[in-house]
């Protein structure tokens, strides 16, 4: 992505020239907008206050899904859109977005009933344009998952969806935007919005947190794609809060502790909420919760003890045969959904649809999904065709991502050959990540801090015991060699990483 050592300086050397578009926020929403804007030939800049995808876009359940649950809520358009985008991503990015069967065990007293579920899945299939969902009998299910609770087990529905690595999806989308002439700067925070004589937003006050440079950057249009932070930015315009931040947490188990070939959907025994166990990056993640997290962003999200216990109550009920306990998990993670406040009391019923609105020239977008990022991006840009006529020519059929195939091709697209050429195919521990991927990230992917490398460019910090303590000496050698960090810098990076890991990803009881 950033193939020149001096890319940040180069970008700064042209930052003062006015831009067509500034996108604030480097999660999937901002990335998707930058990608489409660059495709339209706009001079577009994305700015992200921390690392790319360090907000909600790294802490999802990793599903590229049609949204079976939206169907249950009667959100037909959202389901149709999600199914369409799921297929488009599956076609465009094999190796990154992977088809995956989901098993939904059915127990006596199952709610919704078997007939309703069968009907729902039939509609899901019909809308997706292919017949796939089917029912498996009790014996077949026990054969596949011998550790599943058998008490009251009737059988299971099987239906198709897909999974991805959310961070890598964001990085791929940003990478394609850069290849098309878009620009992106991470660790660059918008401290304030600039306004013209009529009070309309016409730029941003930017603070580069790596070089400590500050400047005002002007643009024809500015988009607020800051996800759960968007109300915070809008405060400067006196915008009344629109968000209902909802926290969701997950636990990650070793695959050897919880072997899983396909995802499993479980209904929580206490409240019937759907939860997922998903095989992911050689591990099994299970979640999620859905709770109000009103003091965001002042209090960043982390899994509470009550949430850990809630997740484990479902695991204990349905997976008693593996002897799993909370402290056998390798890590936990939490994110905040940027859901738009609506009438629903119950967090689970709040719509996951995106919302787009303009406010004193600032275009706000929030609430979208990973899955539907492209639709959201096009809808946002469609509101700007008056100000930026080049956007009128955007085609809905343009390619999403170029290149894909096996895991490396999917994750790195056109750069997969470069990763392979490093000839370090050994994997780090029992994860699928290779040492070549770490080196590639350090050389070409804008790693500024150790957690960029271990929590996002790779997900080793979530997959290895104690955040990867055992591999840190080898990582130190790599970082010092590739980034020129001296001993003191490494010590600072490690200390900061350990603190982040302990606070946000460890299993320590805290409440
Ligand atoms: C628990 C959970 C599970 C989910 N599961 C799924 C799933 O399986 N499938 C799916 O499709 N979706 C899922 N989602 C939804 C999806 O993850 C989010 O909707 C999506 O990631 C939101 O992306 P975003 O870009 O809008 O926000 P974010 O990813 O949060 O990005 C916003 C960015 O703006 C930056 N920012 C904020 N303020 C500033 C500023 N002043 N200057 C510069 N930058 C700033 C932040 O640092 C942040 O990186 C899930 C969400 C959660 C929480």
Automatic annotation (TrEMBL):
Q: What is its EC number?
A: 1.-.-.-
Q: Name one GO molecular function term.
A: oxidoreductase activity
Q: Which UniProt keywords apply?
A: FAD, Flavoprotein, Glycerol metabolism, Oxidoreductase
Top EC class per UniProt?
A: oxidoreductase
PROSITE patterns in UniProt? FAD_G3PDH_2
Task: Cite the Pfam families for this sequence.
Answer: DAO, DAO_C
Q: Which residues form the FAD dependent oxidoreductase domain?
A: 20-368
Annotated family: Belongs to the FAD-dependent glycerol-3-phosphate dehydrogenase family.
Q: What is this protein called?
A: Glycerol-3-phosphate dehydrogenase/oxidase
**Annotated source species:** Spectribacter hydrogenoxidans
